Amino acid sequence: MVDFINNEIKPEAVLWTGDSFPHDEWMSPPMSAKTKVLDKLTEMFLANLTYPTMYPVIGNHDLEISDI
Fold first, then answer.
1. Is 19 left (phi over 0), alpha (psi -120 to 50) or beta?
2. Single pTM value for the model
């Protein structure tokens, strides 16, 4: 997938829109697990995608308590 994005789409910028976790809060992992996943996603983006600019946006489901 990363090769396709780099070689075919060739974005000038990436908008990471957040809400990287399921919307079923009763099944969602604790904040410590969410932080680890967000760190891994960030590492993957930085290591594999070749684009000049990334605009990350934290979604309400990326936080400890959402929809309150």
1. left
2. 0.66
Q: What is the pLDDT of residue 67?
A: 55
Diameter of the chain by CA atoms? 41
CA separation for the pair 62, 43 (Å, rounded): 17
The one-letter code for the residue type at 65 is I
Question: 60, 66 in Cβ contact below 8 A?
Answer: yes
**pLDDT for 10-59, tens place per residue?**
888 888 888 877 666 666 677 787 788 888 888 888 888 877 788 888 87
Handedness of CA 11, 17, 23, 27 (dihedral sign): positive
The counts of H helices and E strands in the chain are 2, 2
CB of 16 closer than 8 Å to CB of 54? yes
